[in-house]
Every structure is written in structure tokens, then in C-alpha cells.
Predict the structure.
Amino acid sequence: MKRKLYILMSLVVLASMILTACGGAAPATEAPAATEAPEQPAAPAATEEAPAKLKVVTITFPQEPDSLSPFYTGMWFSQITQPFWLRGLWRIDNQGNPVPDIAAEIPSEANGGLTDEGKTITVKLNPDAKWSDGEPLTADDFVFTYEMILSDKNAVSTRYPFDTKVESVTASDPHTLVIKLNEPFAPWLTSIFAGTNTSTPVVPKHILEPVFQKDGTLDNAEWNRAPTVSAGPFVFKEWESGSHLTFVRNDNWFGDKPKVDQIFFRFVPDNAAQMAAIKSGDSDIGVYLGFDELPDVESSGTAVVGTDQGGYVESWFFNFDPKRSHPAMQDVRVRKAIVLATDREKITQDLLHGKTAPVGTFWDATPPFGDPNLKPDPYDPDAAAKLLDEAGWTLGSDGIREKTIDGQVVKLKLRYITNSRDIRKNGVMPVVKQMWAKVGIDVELVNNANDVYFNDYANNGPLYGDFDIAEYSDAPSFPDPDVSHFRCSEIPTPDNPAGGNFQGYCNPELDKLFDQQTTTVNRDERIKIFYQIEKIMHDDVVWAGMWNDTDLWSVNKRLTGVVFSGATCFWNVTDWDIT
Amino acid sequence: MATAALPQTGDGAANLGRLTPGQLIWRRFRKHKMAMFGLLAWAGLLLYVTLGSWLFSRGLCAPLGKVVTGEAYANCNDTGLQLQAPSREHPFGTDLIGQDTLARTIYGGQISVTIGILAALMEVIVGTLVGAIAAYYGGWVDSLLMRFTEAMLNIPSLFLLIVTAKFLGGKVPEIHLLGRTLSGSVIVIIVIIGLTSWMYLARIVRANILSLKELDYISASRALGVSDARIIFRHLLPNTIAPIIVSATLGVANAILSEAYVSFLGLGVQPPTASWGNMLENSYNYLERAPWLWIFPGFFILITVLSVNFVGDGLRDALDPRSTRQI
Amino acid sequence: MVNYIVRRIAQAIPQLFVISLVLFALMQSFGDPLATMGARLPPRPEDQARLRRQLGLDQPVIVQYAVWLIGNDWMKIDKDGDGIPETSGTRKGVLRGDWGTSLVTKTPAIKVIAERIPNTLLLMVPSEIIIIIVSLLIGVYSAIRQYSLFDNVITAASFVGFSMPVFWLALMLMYTFSVNFKRWGLPYLPTIGMFDPQVGKTPQQIVLHMILPVTTLCIISTAAYSRYVRSSMLEVLSQDYIRTARAKGVRYTGIILRHALKNASLPFVTLIGLDIPFLLAGAVVTESIFAWPGTGRLFVDHTARADFPVLMGILMMIAVAVVVFQILTDVLYSFLDPRIRIE
């Protein structure tokens, strides 16, 4: 009796395990994600024995997009997919020039597109523009996009620049879009409905308006995860979380026609897995590589390295707030000494394999706004030591400098914070620590994961707390040089917690120049203003440039025609072909 | 054992020719070949991470322009020498920034072993106290503590480690100990591993004490008015020492592995303090190009954990009166 | 019996509440889900402040916990930032089945987790079955042939097996059988993922991609469990009644199968029973290395983005499963072992 019960119980346990295994195996062939597009349900099996081999480009992504909707993501990994399936008015090529997509031509003063001192932009849309389901793409879609961004019912990731710079967006006729600005806004080309990494293109009104009216918000729209209706040479097919994202050729696309059939994004968990895929030829395009991985790619024999300037520069920001920083930081000589004591050349030569170089201005990666005559200060530890002595910091018996302030001996020990990326944590930080030790500066190294590091003022993020030097890879609103965390008015206070000037730097002269450049639409004049900005920032040692953080890619040798652009990375996807 | 002439000495009690419990245990342990190997390996390892620093961690540090020893040598980085294969100057090769891997396995070993021992100690203290108090007082105290224990067991241990590591990460400042400057993350790791692995021991101790509690001499002590603490610490715990010792030993192995996992996920010991775990984390991108970066720390972790496990197994056999080994 | 089960469930419920409260509070100091929104740069402070308000993250912890538990559709929230609550909330709370929206994907947390569970089970269940079978075989054989060459070799190998960090083993396997085999022209296994995109998601592809991760998991767990089975068997084999049976001339294999195994595997069954709920948690490190889209990897990835609706969902799902299986195992054990009586 007991034995039978025992057998029965064991069988129950075993059976339940087998059942869960079966339950787990079944969905494998039918993609459990509810995001699969209704078309081609037999696709997974069909492609296995497809008569003509499909041309599929596999792109490995070390991070999975959180959402495909331009409203609900700030992720670079999501935005760079847009040139495939969601074009905007225009995109930016590798020379920095705009290429029209939905717009028929680029508005300018010459063709009457820019009027009223640049405060009114009139865009003529291509009358053939269509969504992937055949519905015409009109100016009403753009107006709808604008309204949705500003609606309080949508928790969109950013309202820039519509909340502060744009006065109105209207459709004077189905193919003419009129944008009125509050004041001349130099970055308009790359931030309003453009197909760049920093701009929202357009969303389909005929699909999303009914959703908005029914749910009261677009936050939970199915389209955010399965944008089956879109506007680009490819169209969404399926997205299986944790695994892959597929786009197939869009036959309804009025613009440039692609040579390949499918784009397959495969999510890999980390760089090592991506490198394994690159080396074995499983990855056609490797994304967001690190400088230390380049030798591996070059020696792989299966892929070559591609680069582009995305505006990112690895930056050091100095803390000017006396309440949150070491007293030595208030002295420009100490800041200068810190920069001179760091052999930036050696760091880029050795750690980054000479694939990049130190930069002299914040805008060296945003051509042509970086002053070519402002070169990075060369390594000079002796000059650094002299400056420190001049500033009153003398070498103590333990090799660390000290100074007597208010009767107390204060050691020159600084707090250096960065966010996570191996090359900083394990490479740059210990190397810099040793370099500074040579001139008598001691340092505490602190490293935080991104979601802790970029915590804002209201949440006591590290950038708003105690630090002396903060390092991370920063960029202006590339390809536009506009940046917003150097003004006095941007210093966060309890009344203004939304300030982004975590350095606490306040220079009225610099403020004036920044305000001027936003409204200077003439490019050459704007460049001159930036040269002045850069000089002030250099003389006052507000910022120091570690290296030009170029975007790094790997391209499989079998894939031809790939050219990367900083603002629209995959801008020429229709030129790609597989040999 | 019994000899012809029993020594007749004044104090009488000692020297009856019988072995003390300690000696008996040692004898049984000695017969366990693997345990003896483990003990020797463990001793060798301890020598390596302590005296080894004096022998191996010295050399020219080019950027500083002088010969340095000790931790300074382990942290001496020279990017010109990065990722070199094992050679005479650097028998275990160099890492990403030119630090000597051999010296770092020594200093990293100090950290990993320390973390292992202290975390195990913490685990033993917490687990024993919880188990003993729950068993001794019974009633609602027992209920509460056991529910709490079960609650902690309900969460997968790696998840718990990740959550607590993120919670405490970066909040502890640098510490200076015995001439070394350590990142605060070392303390954090010890605390979180200690706080997330005591539950099994608590249950075992509780089970043992529950049965011991009913013995006559315990009841007698209570009747005589002996304080609770004294009963627990002088009478009950010493009799349940066997599983505690075994648990402590295996806890060291578990702690060293946990540290490796957490560091591998990036939440463990932060640079520039070396530990075997974060040496493996750093080596991840160089698996093929610089295999010496993961072979050596991985090997040390393996040997350490292996030898501790052997010793623990031997102790378990030696301390367990119902052991199946034939003596 | 029923009394016992009801009592256990009644005890478990406040336990689950406390776990959820403690975990929720811990997660608040993780990091800010809005701090990067996954991007390379932090969002504009104006956007960050607005999103914090729109997503209800500016409320005190206890309010957020209450909303998580019982929802906010019975009260009004302030969506437009003027300080006056005017919109009805839309969340129903966990107690009514709404696990909230993932702060990363903006889809229901349940959906995010449910998508991954089949993948995890696909890896864990076959592993568990293989582990059970192989551990039993090795453990029993080692016990019967104690001190033989087989036993000693297996014992040493087992120790090495469970002393090894799992990622070390995983990487070694991957580099040997995937990268290096391919380089040497031998038939090789795929590196990462669940299937090859050129071929499609077929069962053959999935099985092929499962081989390495399953092997990794099996080696380490089998090493540990086989030791346990072996020591259990040894303990039972040394019992008097076994010796009596042998003395009476009963065949050895008969003894093993009828008496020893049955009694030795009782604690083993308990162990497996307690292991089952943790199968849902997946194997964090293995899934990460092999890019297997399971719940373990989901947990790590979303921890980095401080996505606590999903993290809480995973943790509570496992906690509930553990409670259920603990009760089941206890009941099962009491049926199987007459010496245990449920009071």
C-alpha cells in the first residue's frame, strides 16, 4: 500500500515536470511573444528550406531596446534602428549633410522654406509618401506626433525641443508642414522630426489616434512593442524579448529600395558573447564595441572595424561647488596641475591602442565646432608639481601634498567618480591614480553603475554630491553643438531641482555666449562663438578631454556598402549588400 | 591501549591511556586521504598569500622609476607592459594595465580568503544564534525566527546577493587595514554573503538543540537557576559543535565562490583592490587573447574551494559518531 | 492533514507580505529607473522630473508600496504637475492581479516575465531530469562500490565539479566546443542564443543551442547531488536490517532496489522537491553567458535598470512557488516516511 503510494507520488512529481517541459517546448516554434506580426505565421519553418537563400543581415546588440516607439525610449540602441523602419523628414549622411526622406527637399532661405529670420520653417512633403500599409503619409501625421508629445497623458521620454523651442506645428495642406519657433533655433534641422539619434521622427496617426481615444494614453499601445505600420525600407516582423528583433523588406516603401531582404537584430548579453559571434562570422555588424576589442576584430579575419563620430567625448568635469568638493579645487592652478599630471597620450596609446586621441575642446567630435588650434595640454608633471607648489600644496612626508588651512593640515586627496564601463573602472582609473601619485595627489576611486551614477539632484545622485572630478562620455545634441549644463541658471537648487549644471560652474560671460549661440542660425558666426566658449572653458579648466569617444563597429567582410554616420548611424542601409 | 602498568600519579584522572576526543577526531581525519590533501593545499595556499607577498611581490615599477615591494608592486601599473604572456619577470603574465598577475593573485588571494573566512564567520555567528535562540526559547520566538529564516530561504540566493549588493554598493568608504588600503566594497561583500547564507545552519542548529534541550541535565540546570546564556553557550552549543564546524568550513568555500559570482557580475570588490573574483571579471573580454588572466585566478579559486571542501568532508566524517568509515 | 496545510498557508501569507515589503524598500535605493532610461546620456532634468511625476515615482516609499499592492484606481493622481490630483489612477495592484508596468519596456510586468519563463524551463527542466538520473546512477554505484577506483575517481571529479565557478566552466566549454572546434575544422556547437537566425527557430536548432548550457548546469549540480545520494545510500547500507537481509542470503541487487534505494532517496526527493520552485529563477550566470533569454538573465538586466515592478514580480513569483512546494514536499515526505508525523 505504502509502496504504491510512493510510486504514485513519484509519478505525479515526474509527470508535472514533464508537463512543464512540454509546455515549455511547444511555444518554441510559435514565438511566445505576443508581438509577432500577423503575417507569415509559418515563416520560422519556411526559411529553413527556402529555395532562394534570403539575404539576412545579422546585427548583434549588447543591449536590448526597451521600446521601439520613439516616444518611449531614450536608448541609443532603439533609436539607431529607426533608419530601417521609421524615417523622418530627412536623415544625416556621413558628411553631416541632410538627405531628404519624407520631406521633398530641405527647407532653406533660398527655396522659401526658412522665413521670418528662421522662426518659421515650411516643409514640403513628398506627395508619394506612404505608410507601410499603403495609407498616405501626410502633414497631419506630424501634427499628431507633436500633439502626442506634449500631451500630459503620455509619459514620453522627452519633450525636447517641443516644450521650450517650438510655438506651433500645423498642416497648411496635406503635404505642407509649418513649424513656428519661439525664437531662431539653430539646432532645428537635427532635432525636429529628423531621422537622427536624438530626434523623434513621426508616428502613424491612423493607427495611434484610435488607441489614444480609447485608452486615454499611448503609454500601453501595442504599437510601442510591435510597430507593424511604419515608414521605411523595412517593416517590423517580430520581436522576441531576450532573443531577437526582425525587420523584413517593405514593398510599400516609396523611397530607396534595399538590396537585402531581412535585418535580424540578435541580442547578446555582453561584449564577450558579441566578440565570439563576430569571430565566428555569426555577426554581420557588431555594435558599440570597446577600444580594447578592436585588435580582436582586426585579427579575426572575418570582420573589419568601422567608425563614426557621434559627438561623444570622454570628459572630465571639475567640481566648482565649495560645499561639495575639496578646497583645492577652487584654485585654477590645482585644476590645471591635475590636467598636466595626466599623460592622456599614453592612456590613449596603450589602453585604447592608439585608435583615438585626446581632445582639446568639448566639441572636437562635433565638427566643425571644435577649434582646431586649441590642442590638449601636453603631459608635463614638472609643470604640474610647480603649479601645486605655487598654490601652496607642498609634499608631505608620505609623498602626498598637504596644506594648512584654518590651522588644520589638509591632505590633497581627491574624489574621482566615473560610471561603469570596464575601460574606465579597470583601465583609466588605476592608471590615473598612479600618474597623480607621482606629483603627490592622492585619490579615492569611486565607480557606479549607470542607474546610480546618473541619478538626479532630487535623488542625491553622485554628480550632485561630493566629488572632485567626474568622468563620463558626454556629447552635445549631436550633430548640433548645443549643450545645456554649463550655464549659471542651470545650477540645481531646491527651487530649481531640474538644473543640469552639476559642476556648479558660474561664469556670466560664458552664459552670454551660450545664449547667443542658440539663436545664431548663421553657421560661421556660430562657429566663432564656440571658439570663444572653448577658450574660456580651457583657461578656467572647467572641462578636460580624455579622448574622442568614436562609435566603434565591426563589419563582416561579406557585407558591402556599409558606411556609418554619427547622427544617423545606419543611414545608407539600402546600399548594403551581401556577397 | 591498556598497558601492563597503569601510571599511578597523584592527580589520577589524566593519563589513563585513552585518547581525548580531539585526538580521536584527528586520527579519523588523518585517515581521510583527500581531507589531508585538502589541509595541505589549504596550508600551502595560506603560505602563498601571506609569505608569498614577501617572496614574489617585488620588482621594478617603471612609471614610478624605482623598485617597489608588496601591495605597491601589485598595484603598479605600466600600460606599456599590458597583456604580456608569462615571462621571467612576470611568471603569470600581466593584465590590461600591465599589473603583475602573480602579485595580484597573492594580494587578491588575501582579499578572497579573508572574505571567505570572515563571511563564513559571520554566517556561523548569525546562524548559530538564530537557531539556538529559536530552539531554546520556543514559542512565538521560535515561530518568528523560523518564519524569518524561511522567508530568506524563499529568495534565490544569487538574486538576494544582487539585490543587497546594489543596495549597499558604494556606501562604505575606504578602509586601511594592516598596511593595505582596501575598497569599502570588501566590507559590503562580507556582510552580504554572511547575511544571505546563514539560514541552513540555523535550521540544523535549531534541530539539534531542540533534541538536546530535553536532556535531563539541561532541565536540572534550569531548575538550579543557571542563566539562559550560560546554558546555551556552555552546555548546549558545545554539544552541537560538529555541524557548526562543518558548516563553517563549507561556508568558506561557498563564500569564496559567491564572491567570485558577485564580482563577475560587477557588483563585488571594486578596483583597484584585487580579488580573485574581480580578476576573473576583468579577464572576461580576453579569454582567448590572454588566457593567463583567467586561468590563474580561476585555478586558485578552484584549488582553494576544492581543498576547503575536502577538509569539510573529512571533518564531517571525523566528527560524526555515526560515520560509516571504518576506523 | 488539511488542518496542517491550512495552518501552513496561513503562516505563509504574512511571511510573503513581509518579504515583499522588505524587498520593495530595498529596491528603492537601488538607483533611479529614470536616471538613464538606458541611454548613453542622462535625460534632461526637466524630462526626468516630469516622468517621475507621471510614473508615480515621486511618492514616498510606503505610498508606492501601497499602490503596488492594492492599486490606485480608487484615488486620483496628479498627472499634469499642477499639484492637484485630477486623473484617476489605472492600476489595480498585485492583490487583484495587476503586477504593474515594467519601467523599461512599458509593457505589463507579467507579460515581460511570462515571455521568459518557457525559455528558462526549457533549460532547467531537462537539466534537472538529467541531473536526477545521473546523480542517482553515479551516487548509487559509488556507494555500492565504495572505495573502488570508480568511487575514488568519481569522488575526486565531483569535488572538482562543484568547486568550480560556473562561469569559468561555461566559458571554457563555449570556447572549446564552439570557437576552437570550428577553428580546427571539427563539427562544432553554436555559441550563443536559442537558434540561428539564418535557419529559423526550429526544434532542432533549439536543441543544438541547448547542449552547452545544459551541460554546464548538469556538470556542477550532478557533482553535488551525486555526493548526497552516495552518502545517503552509504548510511542506509550500513543499517542493521540491510546487513540482516544480506546475511539471510538476499541478493545484493534485490536489496538495493527494494530497500536501500527507496529509503535513501527519500531525503533526495525532498531536496528535489525544494529545488523545483527555483527552476523558475533560471541560472543567472549561465543564461548570461550563453545569451539564453530566461528569467535569470531578465533579473540581472532589469536590476541594472532598477525596474522594480519586474524584479518584484520575479521574486514574489518564486517566493510563492517555494511556499507551495515546501508544503507539497512536507506532505509528500510524511506519506513516504512513516516516522514523520504531521502534528
